[in-house]
Amino acid sequence: MTRVLEWFLRWIAGGAFVYAATAKILVPCELAMDIYQYQMAPGVLINIGAIILPYVELILGICLIAGLAPRGAALGITVILLFFMVILSVNLIRGIEFECGCFGDVENDICQKVALSFQADHPDMDRVTFVRIRTGCDIVRDLILVACSLGALLLMQRRMNNSRRIRTL
What we know:
82% of the residues lie in helices and 0% in strands. It is an all-alpha fold.
């Protein structure tokens, strides 16, 4: 049962990273604009980040799904997600309006759809509230993915410890 749960968690976190990376690889200029809107990266790093980051995400996602250095991949995914959550939180506190850029096209972003559904229920909602709802959803989504990644990591570690214990008997 633990192997199935580990596999499931690896597929959720890894699959999300593969999906997000694919969306970003197809339009690196949009990702560069999203990174620019965060107003946190020096100009020289924006284009480099927009080109390299999606490939790092793709490799980590594939490795986690395929079981190639899965502990390192899970740890890498967790670190990236925590980094994204810090950046999202800082910009939320700063009141900067930006697009997350996490999954490429904003039209297909689940958090954009959540915020739009709130806006449909409250037509007088201002833009700041809309951005706060969308960003809050982005942070919650990232927390869920961190939980999946860390859960898979802990299950892998537990399985390795059990196999070591069996070998020493």
